[in-house]
Each structure stands twice: as structure tokens, then as C-alpha cells.
Amino acid sequence: MQHRVVITGMGAVTSFGMGVEPLWRALQAGESGVGVITRVDLGDIPCKIGSEVKDFDPSEYIDRKEARRMDRFTKFAVVSALSALEDASLDLVRENPERVGVIFGTGFGGMESFSREFEVMLERGPGRISPFLVPMMIPNMAASHISILIGAKGPNETVVTACASASNAIGAAFRLLQQGEADVVITGGSEACLEKIAYAGFSNMKALSFRNDEPQKASRPFDAGRDGFVMAEGAGVLVLETLEHALARGARIRAEVVGYGRSADAFHMTQPPADGNGGARSMRLALDDAKLRPDEIEYINAHGTSTPPGDFCETQAIKSVFGDHAYRIPVSSTKSMTGHLLGAAGAVELIACVKTIEDGVIPPTINYDVPDPECDLDYVPNKARKQVVDVALSNSFGFGGQNATLIVKRFSN
């Protein structure tokens, strides 16, 4: 027997602030969270912009002593997770802790801690390295700290599949609950890699936008003038439960997870194949898993990073899967506003899908000024659209050719 899986809580930390509501207000308004980076001196690195979480204070959720032993990505994760649990009205004292799991995604893990302590070693020697470096840096610490703080003793895993990490983590949580191996799973992704070394690497790869003079216009998915993605930091968390468990405790059900697909391009470290066949297979697998026809999808939250090859290949993949219906589906990239949260992107974008279903508003793709003839779908340009959506699909494609697709729908008993 496969259990139905529902979403009962959501939490986020983004450049728009702490919580889902500031994020959703900005997405509906078509606002950009991108600006000139202030936390790090990027020196002579050509890219100076990003989507930065400013004035972040986790003290409402995390003891100050504990916070000093956490990397920034872990703090984002913990705050988002505790916020999501509040949103779900989940009283963990009443739960069997062995039936509560945490499955989390990240692309880089503790990049801030690694960068800072490496500088310490160069300047002051290895004897001055913090003894907490390793437990602050390793990618599984977000899931670990969430588990410790809430007492979750069920399955605890970390997924690292680059920009598909959060979506794959949510997919893994979905499978775990379907199979009845847990009652509740806290899942999502977190990233905090706005660091000099990351900027240097991505800049030298020519992957980033260099529109330093117009930061809010830099992320422009599917636009003919796109020149690269904009890095972002933050986290998104969802509380997933089996339907039986959610109904038994009288939970508010926000949406149902119905499909998950994943695939590998087996093609190139950073470039997708021109026909987008890996992403297309991921979408087809998710549709098959959800037992849905392509024409039943009413909104696609695209991976849409604002790179010239990536957006073209995703457009090709959507056309391959949906045929003529591709031209009737609203497709938007919220990365045009949030920037690219890398290993956290899939969680924040699935939250946007849930809010679209709840509120009947499709967020736009902003900065869409000059249509690209090779990207010719309905990208919901520049303004949010009021439209009833019952079924939404979210794509996440990562370096290494790792693809993940999630499908959520309006809950109906």
C-alpha cells in the first residue's frame, strides 16, 4: 500500500526576509531581491551582485551559544524548519520521535566556515583553526541540527545533487512517507555560499551575470539578453506527512505531493544536452508517477536560471514532453526575483507552487524584455497573473546532469 503524502507546513529564509509571507508578497509583486553584495569584499572578482539575506537574526529560534557553532547555511535551515513546524501546528511532544524524519539538501554545505577558517590557517597557522570547523562545514549538519533540536529520531539524510539537491531531498521524503517508513518528514534545502571563493569559481566559469550596474535586472530567465545566473542564499523547508497522520491530528493540508521524477543527463559536467532530454525524462517520470496526462499540468515553475544554454534546453525539454500543450502552460522562473538559491532552490520554488495553488496567483518572470525566438513559451512576463491552478510542476536541474521534478496538486479527499 502506498500512502498519500501532503504538505502541512512551510518555512523560508530569503533575501526578502524570514518567513514564507515576505517571500510570497515579493513574488506576487514582481520584486527583485538582488543587490550589490555587502557581507563579503569581492575585491577584483568581476561579479559583485547576489541575492543576500540581510539583517538575519536567528536568536528567536536558536540559542546564541549554539548559533556560534553553526554555519550560516545551518542557521538558515534551522530557522526555516522551526518556522515550518509552527506553520504546521505540529506538537512534537505528541509524536513518536522514531517516526519523524529529516531529509535535507544542500549544494555546498558550510562554505562560510570553510572560507573563514582557511583564511585563519593562512594568516595565523593551523593551530588557530576552530575545533568546530568540521562539524560546522560538513553538509549533513543542517539535517543533524534540526534532528537534535526537535528530537526527531527517524531517518536522517542529506542529499547533495547541486542545484537539484532540495528537490531530490523532497522527493526522497515523499518516497519514505509513501512507503510508510515515517509519519512526518521535515525536508527542503539550505545554501549560504555568497563567499569570495565561490564567486571566483563561478565567475571564471562565465556562469554568472556581470550586470553589476543593474543588479535587480541581472536575473532575466528566457530573455534574449540573459548572460548568466545570480547567486542567492537562503533556505526553504516543508513539513510532509502521510495523509492518515495529517487527518488524524486535524492538520491544515496546504497541498498534496503526487509525483516525483529524477534522471541523469550522462552528458557533461555543467552543460545540459541541447535537446534537454535528461530534464524531459525527469518530467515524464514525474507525470507517470502522478498518473497525470501532460495536459493536466496547469503551471510550471521552471528551473530557469538565466543562463543562455540552460533556459534554451529547458524550453526544448518542455516542448518535448508537452507538445502543443506547452504553448498553453504558464511557465515562470521565480529565480528572476530570488536569484538562484542553488541547493535550496527547489524547496523555495515548490513553496511558490503551493502558494500559487492556494491563492490563484502565478508569479511572473521579471526582466523579460526582449523575447528570444528560441525560447517561445508563455513565461508570464513581468506581471503576476491571476489564474486558478490545481496542478503545478517544479523543475530543478543540477551541475553534473542531475535532474529532479516534483508535482503538487490541490488537496481533495
Rg value: 20 Å
Show unreliable segments.
none
What's the number of extended β-strand segments? 15
Largest sheet: number of strands, sense, barrel closure: 11 strands, mixed
The general outline is: globular
**Percent in strands:** 15-25%
Roughly what percent helix?
A: 25-40%
Give the rounded overall mean pLDDT.
97
Following the backbone from N to C, one meets helices and strands in this order, namely: EEHEEHHEHHHEHEHEHEHEHEHHEEEE
- Please give the count of helices: 13
Based on secondary structure, the structural category is alpha/beta
Distance between the termini: 17 Å
Descriptive notes:
This protein has 413 residues and is of the alpha/beta class. The protein is 33% helix and 19% strand. The radius of gyration is 20 Å and the shape is globular. The mean pLDDT is 97.
Write the layout of secondary structure elements.
Elements: E1 5-14, E2 17-18, H1 20-29, E3 35-36, E4 49-50, H2 64-67, H3 72-87, E5 100-105, H4 111-124, H5 133-137, H6 141-150, E6 156-159, H7 165-178, E7 184-191, H8 196-204, E8 234-242, H9 243-248, E9 255-264, H10 277-290, E10 299-301, H11 308-322, E11 331-332, H12 335-338, H13 345-359, E12 361-362, E13 385-386, E14 391-398, E15 402-409
Parallel strand pairs: 5-6, 5-7, 10-11, 10-14
Antiparallel strand pairs: 1-2, 1-8, 1-9, 3-4, 7-8, 9-15, 12-13, 14-15
Helix pairs in contact: 3-6, 7-13, 10-11
